[in-house]
Amino acid sequence: MKKNSRIIVIALVIGVFTIVSMAVNIQAKEQENVKQAITAKIKEIASINVEDVEKSPIEGIYEIVANKGSIVFYYAPKSELIIFGEIYDKNKKSLTQEKRDQLQAKKITDIPLDKAIKIGTGKNKVIEFTDPDCPYCRQAAEYFKNKNVTKYVYLIPITQLHPKAEEKAKYILAAEDKVKAYYEVMSGAKDKDDLSSQKISKEVNDMYQAQQSIGNKIGITGTPAFWINGKYVPGANIKMFDTLLVK
């Protein structure tokens, strides 16, 4: 290749790179402007923390991710309309649900399993966030009891609904045999016992606080919540459990 030809090729490459960089910067600036606009506007409606903004499949409408990935909604800057609902493609697949699934699946990479109570050695991996006094949590605990699963359990008491759930969680964490204590509590066997006077060590309190921090970090606001073989399942959805578990 001649010297002049090399100079032309280098100039073209630099030109393309510059154009791409400018396009990326413009898009980033545009998304930041949308984020600022929707953040200001959504405060007038609800307590929602906007985290990410992307273009949606519909021209002129942006996809908004909020509250640690638990909420996906849409915003049209020109009309200043906020849209809560599902976008479906021509195959009747919800693109909104697909986005939520992607966000929830990504969360399991941030969950430190060494902070959980490990139950079982089965082939199905189940990550469980549960409240010891929640009836649906107890229903799920009974369901998984004889299943081919390895469960990683995090105790997240919703004390506004269940004032004694925290002391039951600490009772489980303080037990020498935590698995036995878990099933004891989840069966209702400790419901009439006064656990408020139990002595809790610093180690147990630290373990309890670590589990609360993990739940808060990934946006757990209600129980039960599960990841079964990587798939997020909110609530004690027994039919979905059956679908996701490998025999």
Structure report:
- With 247 residues, this protein is α+β, with helices and mostly antiparallel strands.
- The protein is 43% helix and 18% strand.
- It is built from seven helices and nine strands; from the N terminus they run αββββαββαβαααββα.
- It has a five-stranded mixed sheet, sandwiched between helices. Strands 1-2-3-4 form a four-stranded antiparallel sheet, sandwiched between helices.
- α4 packs antiparallel against α5 and α4 crosses α6.
- It is elongated and about 70 Å long.
- It starts with a helix and ends with a helix.
Q: Give the % helix.
A: 40-55%
Strand content: 15-25%
- Provide the number of structural domains: 2
Task: Please name the CATH topology of the largest domain.
Answer: Glutaredoxin
- CATH class call of the largest domain: Alpha Beta
Oligomer: single chain
Quickly count the helices.
Answer: 7
Report strand order across the widest sheet: 5-7-6-8-9
CATH superfamily of the largest domain: Glutaredoxin
Question: What is the compact description of this entry?
Answer:
Helices cover 43% and strands 18% of the residues. With 247 residues, the chain is an alpha+beta fold.
Primary descriptors:
247 residues; alpha+beta; Glutaredoxin; 2 domains; 4-stranded antiparallel β-sheet; 7 helices; 9 strands; 18% strand
Secondary-structure blueprint:
Elements: H1 3-42, E1 50-55, E2 62-66, E3 71-76, E4 81-83, H2 95-107, E5 117-119, E6 124-130, H3 135-144, E7 149-155, H4 165-174, H5 178-186, H6 202-217, E8 225-228, E9 231-234, H7 238-244
